[in-house]
Structure formats: C-alpha cells, structure tokens
Amino acid sequence: MTDDQLLRYSRHILLDDIGVEGQQRILDSHALVIGAGGLGSPVALYLGSAGVGRLTVVDHDTVDVTNLQRQVAHTMARVGSPKVDSIRQTVSALNPEVQIHTVQQRADAALLLQLVAAADVVLDCSDNYATRQAINAACVQQRKPLVSGAAIRFDGQLAVYDPRDAASPCYACVFDPREDFEEALCATMGVFAPLVGIIGTLQAAEALKLISGAGSPLTGRLLMLDGRHMAFNEVRLPRNPDCPVCGRVH
Q: In 3-state terms, what secondary structure has residue 225?
C-alpha cells in the first residue's frame, strides 16, 4: 500500500475490524454490480470510494430524466448516455485508482456465468425478477457470495446469500422461480427517492464486510425496511433442501 493510499483509506485502517490487512483485501478485490440505477448508484460510489480495486458494472439502459429523482450517480448533462458510462465517470472522478469495466447489455445467463466467475462478490442491483433469478443461479454455480437488494414504493429488502456457507439459503430458496410473480415497477408503482440510497448503501456495506472480513454478514437473514415509519424487521431464512437451484438434487 502506498503512502497516498494509507492516507486516503486511513479512516478504514483505524478500524480494528479492517486495519491495513482488511483494506488491502478491499484494494485487491473485484466486485460485480448488476444494475446502474437507483441501487447501483450508491453501491458503485461507496465501493469506489472505499477502494475496491476492480468494479464491473452491467446495465443495458441509458440515463433518462425520470431517473434523476433517485439515481444519484447520473446528471442532467448525461441524459441519453449509457448508464454504465455515466457511473464510470462519477466513480473515476471520486477515485481514479479504481479499475472500472463496463458492460452495456442486458445481463443474461451466459454473460452472468462469465462475469460472476471472475468476481469476489456480486451485488444484485437489478430491477426485474428474471434477472435476479439468473444472477442467483450463476452465483450458486460459481460459489460466489451475493448481496441482494430491492426497493419499491416505501419498502426495501436486503439479504446476503453465500453458497460457500452450507447453511445459507440462495435467493431461489426464498423466492421460488417456479411460482408466478407479479412484477412491481417503479414506473407504475413509484419509489421514495432516499429509499434506494438506504438499501444501496447497506448493500455496499455488506459487500465490504464480506471482502474485508469485518463483522458478521447478513447471511441467512432478510432485512426489511418500512420507509414510511423507518422501521426495520429481520426474518431468518432457512435453506430449502428441495430448492430447484441449490437443493440436494442439484
């Protein structure tokens, strides 16, 4: 670690749970972020500012003026530009040392298998159910920890699914891909602007804990936020032995 890095990350290094060794693990790490919108914006900003060495950001969309109410990595000047390019500019301005690889396409199963294999931690910041299931399947197959966040209206959810832990469920244990699921979209349901910042920041925190070894991750627990009353609730998540993705027959 250089003198400049020791100064930049000094507030992390002062934490007993992180220290020089934990910060070095952050600098050496590779995080994969799927989605560059409301959740992906704070995730990328905090991972970049914390010194994650490599960030891969995947999103097929472009910046729209309706995004700016909550997607804080983007600006009016970038309306019409690819979201991944916009997020790269913002993170690079904050921390030029971060290596950022961007992929401007929809995250399908084949792409995810390739990208997940190269990552140390995966952050699901997507906004649709099919993509969430595909991300989970790739993480189970590649045995990579997944930090999953979701936000709609005033309600948020956060969980960590870690295939390296025999007791950890996967996303499909909790949300069965064989069941019909009615998609809730921000365009029709709305979303409280700070809510995505809260959940995205928590996702970044869990990812940094997983990378550095600090604290205890949210593995096997679903954290739910009622933003109207600012109330958090936690539910324990058992592994489903008959899960179609990580169950015993698979």
A: strand
Judge whether 94 lies within some domain.
yes
What pLDDT, in 10s, does the model give residues 86-131?
A: 999 999 999 999 999 999 999 999 999 999 999 999 999 998 999 9
Query: Which of the four pLDDT bands, split at 50, 70 and 90, describes residue 249?
Result: low
Instruction: Write down the residue that tokens 């699921």 correspond to.
Output: 181
Rounded to the nearest 10°, the torsion over CA 194, 195, 200, 202 is 110
- What is the C-alpha radius of gyration for the chain, rounded to an integer number of angstroms? 17
217 within domain boundaries: yes
CATH of residue 100's domain is: 3.40.50.720
Domain that holds residue 116: 3-236
DSSP state of 191: B
In a domain, residue 47? The reply is yes
Q: Which of 31, 86, 16, 48 shows the shortest CA–CA distance to 210? A: 31
Per the structure, the count of domains in the chain is 1
Q: For residues 160-185, give the mean pLDDT.
A: 87
pLDDT greater at residue 181 or residue 7: 7
- Cβ neighbourhood burial of 80 (10 Å; 0-12, 13-18, 19+): exposed
DSSP structural state of residue 237: -
Within a domain: 48 = yes
Q: Is the dihedral of CA 47, 172, 220, 114 positive or negative?
A: negative
Q: What is the pLDDT of residue 188?
A: 79
Strands 231-236 and 146-152: unpaired
69: pLDDT strictly greater than 60? yes
Mention every residue, 6+ apart, whose C-beta is less than 8 A from residue 126.
34, 35, 107, 132, 135
